[in-house]
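Format notes (please read before filing issues)

Several people have asked whether sequences and structure tokens are stored in separate files. They are not. Every record keeps both together, in the order shown below: the sequence lines, then the token lines. Line labels are part of the format and must not be stripped during preprocessing.
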Amino acid sequence: MTGVSPIASFVNAAIYQTAGKVGHDSVAAKYAAATESSDFSIESEKPYAELWMGTHPSLPSKDVQTQRSLLELVQDNKALMSTEISRKYGEKLPFLFKVLSIRKALSIQAHPNKKLAEQLHAKDSKNYPDDNHKPEMTIAVTPFDGLCGFRPLKEISHFLANVPSLRGLLGGEAAQEFEEGVSGRETSSSAADTQRNKSSLQSAFSALMTRDKSAIAAAAKELVASAEKDGENFAGGGGPSNGGKELADLVIRLNGQFEGDVGLFVLFFLNYVKLEVGEAMFLKADDIHAYLSGDIIECMASSDNVVRAGFTPKFQDIPTLTSMLTYSYAPISEQKMDPVEYPYVTMNRTAYSSSSSAILYDPPIEEFSVVKTQLNGNEAKASFEAIEGPSIIICTGGSGTISVGPKKEQVKAGYVFFLGATAECVLESDSESFTTFKAFCELSGKETANGVH
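Then the structure lines:
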């Protein structure tokens, strides 16, 4: 990397979206405005949902000093990503790093696998802007809730039996076909039973998603009335995963955001999950989900492809969504991740004695991993070994410094840095608590433990 600094500070733009938190309540907006050279200013009445960090052409990061895009920088200096990664991923970062600030439901959606992404992009480049897949990982920065993956089949059957408006909308025949199709084999591990269960689930879910809008709106009124009246007894007292009052409150809340939407019924098919700060989950390509509220760090393969079908005024593609899903069904515990201690960092005595930590979130794909570093107390220091790939670091709280060789930079909440391959990095706190997240890609050194149940 002769003549090229292995570390650079970048400015990143926040995206206006109606689902975002408003004004200074949005951490995405606050982080975007944090860099001193940023020309972004927060408008107090405007909602901001996302902050992007990476090389995606829709919104590439820009160098604070030169205003060159990160995409230009890594394409001109291939050693910054490593020759292997640069060649494999077309001279672009293999991951897209984001901060999301969610005030109201983001769309019911899934992201296509690589083959489908190529087909959708070729057919409709306006709505599917690239040809890449988009597996993603979510780490809660504040308490978060969302709908993620299909519930265990017994829970879906419970709701079909105890939510009359759901059963009526689906149709008695379709509901009975699902119940009979999965009865007695809901938890079977045999391949034949699993495939039959998935087929039954696809049929029932597709029937729901293709119902007439007027029928959905009428059923939604009945559903909301029941939620308001029944409280703890709503939906047969709830399922094993969620109580009746919790589900009633969720229906009322979501109806206030998207009145009469099919998503009010989709929530009985999907796991309703809450993540506490630091908890994470991984979503494969073709997994259905909808983020409902909270602030999260999100890392994904570098793509902006979204197939939507509810809770949104944007383009919806229900035929593609219902045909592309994996229809895997499982409790949410199977999508939550188990982070592990990151092994390639050395803490100084101050960091060690203050219970500072570096935690690895390592999904079962090669495009990205994320390390959360928490340094507690002034002068707590973490020295990271070099890796054979690029990294992006964002500070989410406190302050300190980042050093690569003789170059040292001040770090505050919202500051973003790119680290080139083989750069040894040192983080040092000058505050009570200094928190950073680092997304990185390293093909040859990918952890074998993937942190997923």
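For reference, the curators noted about this record: The first helix runs from residue 27 to 34. Confidence is low (pLDDT under 50) at residues 446-453.
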